[in-house]
Amino acid sequence: MRAAFERRRHLVDFAVGSLARHPTKNLGLVVTYALVVFLVGSVMLYGSAIRREAAAMLSSGPEITAQAMVMGRHDMSTSADVAALKGLRGVRRIEPRLWGYLWDSAGAANYTLMVPPPSDAAHAVGKGEAIVGEGVARARKLKPGAMLFLVSPSGKFLKTRVKSILSSDSALVSSDLVLVEEADFRAFFELPADVWTDVAITVTNPREVTTVAEKAALKLPRHRFVTRADMSRTAEALFSWREGLTLALLAGALVAFAILAFDKASGLSAEERREIGILKAIGWETGDVIALKLVEGGLVSGVAFLVGVIGAWAHVRFFAAGLFAPVLEGWSTLYPRFPLAPSIDALEIATLAALTVAPFTAAILVPVWRTATADPDAVMR
Amino acid sequence: MITLEQVTKVFNQGRHNEVAAVRGVDLTIGDGRVTVLRGPSGSGKTTLLTVIGCLARPTTGRIRIDGEMVSGLPERFLNEVRRRTFGFVFQRFNLIRGLSARDNVMLPAYPTGRPHRALIDQAEGLLDRFGLADRASLSVEHLSGGEAQRVAIARALINDPAVIVADEPTASLDGERVAQFLAIAEDLKRAGKTVLITSHDPRITAAPLVDALVTMADGRIVEASP
Hints:
Largest interface: A-B, 32 and 29 residues
Strand order of the largest sheet of chain A: 5-6-10-7-9-8
Order of helices and strands of chain A: HHEEEHEEEEHEEHEHEEHEHHHHHHH
Number of strands of chain A: 13
Structural class of chain B: alpha/beta
Distance between the termini of chain B: 16 Å
Shape of chain B: globular
Radius of gyration of chain B: 17 Å
Shape of chain A: elongated
Number of helices of chain A: 14
Oligomer: heterodimer
Number of helices of chain B: 7
Radius of gyration of chain A: 30 Å
Strand content of chain B: 25-35%
Structural class of chain A: alpha+beta
Strand order of the largest sheet of chain B: 6-7-8-3-9-10
Helix content of chain A: 55-70%
Strand content of chain A: 15-25%
Largest sheet of chain B: 6 strands, mixed
Number of strands of chain B: 10
Helix content of chain B: 25-40%
Number of domains of chain A: 2
C-alpha cells in the first residue's frame, strides 16, 4: 500500500518537474487550451444564466396573460373585456395590469413603468411615489428619498420620490422596473380610466391552464391568451438557438484546438521519445510511462480548464459577457445593464470538459502508448 | 549466468533495407565476471548488448538468465526482469536533461515505490561514492563528460542489479577518466557484480580486470576467450 502510494508520489513529482523543464511549450499549451475553454464556456454560462433569469421571471408571472390584438399588434384591453373574463369557470383571480415602456434618453436606457397590482401589498406605492429597480437606481444614481423625474414621448412630466429600491432574485425581472401609482401612470401616458395593458389570469387548477385559455379565447376572440408554458418554451428556444449559433461560430476555435491536438497526437518530439526510451530502459513499465504522461496532461488540462472556466465565469459575471452578449441577446438588448449571476450547471461543465479534455487526452495517449509499447532500444534509436 | 542460444537480431525484416545485426550467437556470460564484447563499428556488439539487456527482443533464439527463459516474456515481465537484473550505462549516458544528478540517479527506483527520503539518501550515497557529492543538485547538462558518466553509473546501481551493462563507456574519455572507470569496474567486480562491456578501446580490452573477451565481426562471434 505504502509502496503504491510512494510510486504515485514519485510519478506526480516527476510529472511536475517535467512540465517545469519545458515552460514555454507547456505555458503555450495552457494558454491555448484555456482560451478555447474561456470562449466556449462564456457562451454556455451566459446562455445558461439568461435562460435561468428568464425562467425566474416567468415563474413569478401570471399563469395566463390575455392581450387584446388589433391587426396582429398588441392593443389595450377594456374594462368590458376584464368583466367578461371574470365570469369564466376555472378562473380564480383576474388582475388587469398597467405597464409600458419608456425610453429615457437622459439615462440612455429603456425602463418598464408598471402599476403594482392591488394584491401586491409589499410594493404598494402612493401618489407621487415610485419604487425602482436596481438598474434604474444605478443609471439615475438614485437612493430612497431621491427624486425621479421622467418625461413621456408627448412631453408629459412625472415627478416622483423614490420610496425604495427593488432587490429581486431575478435582475431580469426588476432591473429596469419603475413602479408608480395608477393615477400617475394614466396621467403620464395619457390613458383613459377604462383601459388596461393586459390582463393576468390565475386559474383554480393549474392543470387546467390550457382548457381555461381555450375557453377564454372563445369568449374574447379579439384577445390572445399566452400561457406561462408558452412563454417559457419561447424563451428557452430563443436563447438556446442563439447559444447554438454562437457555439457554431466558435466551432472554428474548437477545430483549431482539435488540429493542435491532432498535431500532438501525430507524433512526439525527438526529445520526448528519447525520454520515454530512457525511462523504459532503466526499468519503468509501459503503464508507468503512460501514467506519467497522463498526469502531465491532466495537470495541463486541469489548470487550463480551471483558468478557462473561471475566466468565463468572470466574463459573464463582471463584464456581462461583453464578447458575446450582443449575439446572444439579439435585438432585445436589455436596458439598463444588470449583473447576471452565471449558473454553474454540472451537465454543461461536463459537456465543456468532454469537448476539450477528450481530444487532448486522446492526443496524449495515442503517441505515448505507441512509443511506450515499443522496445526501448528502438525508441532511443 | 546468462546464456544465449542461436540468437539473431534482424532490423527492418522483410523490407528492402533489412539488416541482420546479430547472427546465430551462442554465448555464456558467467556471474561475477567482467566480460568485454569487442569488435569494429558495425560488428553487432551494441545490438547484442541491448538484446542481452532486454532492451530489444531477439528476432530468433533463446536468452536465459539464471536458467529462466526471458526472450519470450511479455513486455510487463520483461520490464521487471530488466529493472531487477540490469543497470545500464549508455554510450551517451542518456541522462535526462534539466534534472539534477540526484534526480537522475533516483529515476530507475521510482517504480519500486521505495520511500522518497530513503531514495534521496541512497542516491546521495552513490554520488558520494563516485566523488560527486558536491554535484548532486547540479543539473546534468552542467557536468563534465567524466562526471556525467559517473552519474550514469550511479543510476545503474540504484536498484542494486546483478549485471552492469556498459556500452562503449570510454569512447569520449581521456586517460585519467578511463582509469577512473576501470577502478569503478574493479570495485563492482569485487562486489560480486557481473559486468558486461562493449568496447574497441584497447585500454579496456587489455585491462587486467577483464575475465572474458568476446570478439565480434559481421554480427557473429569470431573469437571468445577464455
